[in-house]
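Lab notebook, page 48
Experiment: co-folding of the full assembly
Goal: obtain a model of how the components sit together before planning crosslinking
Operator: M.T.
Materials (sequences as entered):
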Amino acid sequence: MVVTVNKIIPFSTVDGPGNRTAIFLQGCNMNCLYCHNPETRSKCVHCGTCVSSCPTGALSFEGQKVVYNSTKCIHCDRCINVCPHDSSPKTLDMTPEQVWQKVENQIPFIRGITVSGGECTLYPEFLTELFTLAQAHGLSTLIDSNGTLDFEQYPDLLAVTDGVMLDIKARNSEEHKRVTGWDNSLVLKNARFLASKAKLCEVRTVVSPDLFDAEQTIIQTGDMLSGFLSLRPIRYKLISYRPIGVRQQYKDTLKIPAREQMEYYARLLAAKGFKDIIII
Amino acid sequence: MTNFPVYLGQLDMLLEPFIQNVDDATAKKLLRGFLVHVDSTILDSFSHANIGPMPTRTGRLLLEVEAELMQAVPNLTLKYEEGVTDDDFAIQAVKTALRSAKPSFANHRMFRQELGENYVIASCYNGLPLGGGSYTLCRLILGNIAKRASGIEDFKTNQLPYVMDIMARYMDARIRFEVEESGFFENNFLAKEGFISRNRFTAMFGLVGLAECVNILLEKEGRPGRFGHDEYATELGESIIRQIYEFNEKHHNPYCEITGGHFLLHAQVGISEDKNISPSTRIPIGEEPDEMIDHLMVINHFHKYFPSGTGDIFPMDITVHQNPEYVLDIVKGSFRKELRYLSFYEKNSDVIRITGYLVKRSEIEKLKSGQNVLHDTTALGMGAAQNGKVLDRKVR
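Observation: model returned without errors.
Model output:
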């Protein structure tokens, strides 16, 4: 079983508690306007637009395929910026065992791994295999997800998953469609299901004024989940929209929230019993 | 002997009796007064205090106060041992370190196994017996010795042994003078009042510039690769350090009884005038590996040889404030991998660790613009910022 890996960050500060190796899988089913890593959305179609833009010759054609030479790469990201398909020429096809070999190097410096994307739950069998390996070596396992996999149908995956970090991008279905292109009923079902099984460790909402009603989303999500906090503390991460990495066509239409606004949302959640609230 | 108090004491134990009967707020006020006094009267950031490994109320409050004060003096080390130092205490230490570039983390398990429980961390990061000290510190500038060599073979069989022999005999002569002729141990108040004892003294056999040494030798051999990025370079570096270690194990000095009659190896942090000489066994600033894991897996070859001190420094990204456990995980992993001593600060922190001492960036700016500053180490920091590129360390 092989998946396409966008990148592996050996030491990540921001993908869950403590030091974790973060694995980013390629491909996403949503199309969030504020996506800050759009190069993870699609698979490479080998169109070659990036080849001529590479300043160091790290990209070339081998037959019909674009190949990437990591030793020549200076990580200037020009290939990603010119890609017309929201993809990257630097991805690698890897098995769970191959990914595990990359994770193993970081023992004993890490406490766990986090798989993100793209949308990593597009590949539940891969996650199950990788997490089984990780847990056997004493590492904790987290999923970073948009909530479009019906977790209830994947008990084997859940058994080897220590926690899910779930995006709730909007509470109202119409707004959710506007932000992501998807209805959110499955996302909300997952939030309730995972919380009831003590598998929900974090909820995130990206806030951009006028894009959706952030206040209602935060209030209603808080109400929905506050009853589960006694089973397991749930971190609520309030993320201020930032234009870094965002596609040009959306960048200028989206607004950055004021710090005071974010702090107001945090107070709403604190009043509902959330103890671990982070504004970033 | 330097006239600076390079060791201030085990502050948590020392101050615990004074705050026993007061509430936290009063205790913090007292500690704040004490620390401000230290910063204003000891004008040199090589003065070093210790806390840990056991968590104490004084230790915790002291860390909280330091996080607020953000002072360059005193230098501070947390003796850390997984399972002995609890996570809450260590996390407070991380939070304080991100704001004030201290405490550093010392691998208590390694130090106590080598020096016994009664050791201290003094000056930069020097592990030495409590109530003792170092008679002297001399250093090999390894890069300069490599320049004299025709290749690796000549370096190892002729040039390095030649300089090591001279340095050891020079240190012997200095120590003999101090003990037999100077009268220091008979007359200095520290000895008279029982703070130090001659028989707890040893000496530090120092070295700098391993990176340049390895790179010069590789070049002379016509081999590709650079220190920090190449397995062969790491192996060569370790074989050089091992040779120096073995030389020291064979050399005997009659006045270093406390350390078995031998000097202790010391990875010296350099002096502010050093140019193109990397401190200790560090990877040169500007050449650090892209990934911190690769950095750690190079330096872990070297820390174990230096009981009288070595250390590496990492400026951290601002995201770490939200996840101090990240730093603690790195400390835990590193200490399992025989790393000895690690320092961290947040990349925008005003207080930063230059090499082994602390300086405020704002004070360097004041000095640059011709204003007076309080600490002499600010002048050293200004030199090191210019010559040693310490403001350009890779952020982790």
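Interpretation: The two ends of chain A are 36 Å apart (CA to CA).
Next step: discuss with group before ordering constructs.
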